[in-house]
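For the sake of transparency, this paper describes our internal protein records without simplification. An entry from our holdings is shown next, in its original layout:
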Amino acid sequence: MELYNGHLPVEEILNRWLSEEMDSNFGAFIPFVGIIREEGGIEALSFDIYEPILQKWFNQWQTKANDMGAKLRMAHSIGDVPVHTSSYISAVMSPKRKVALRLINDFVEDFKANAPIWKYDVIDGKRVYAEDRSTPMDGAGILA
């Protein structure tokens, strides 16, 4: 798991991950790149992350991947990420494509629902909590 301030250097990250795993005998490398869309007048999205819980969540997924003979990678942004740039990348490497395809789908869907990352719209230079696109976390306190 990698965290970056600002937008992600997509090409550098994906090329490095692929290069690091070239000799691992994986038959599939399936990346997912999330890109900030221009909608609702936003100029950027901004992210806050509680790293200890995110690391625990990611480690559980890495264990699942390892049990399937696969490897999982993830990078996410902290702070402001302008539209048309990336805030999220994940990738699965596995011996077989079906494992990688299933795992990347399940991982990305669970990420959207359960990762401890708080999203804000940036409009006119101000951060506004994106409540309509947020999912409450189980056990997030008495207001959850």
The chain has a mean pLDDT of 91. The CA atoms of residues 114 and 139 lie 11 Å apart. The chain has three helices and seven strands. Helices lie at 10-21, 51-67, 97-114.
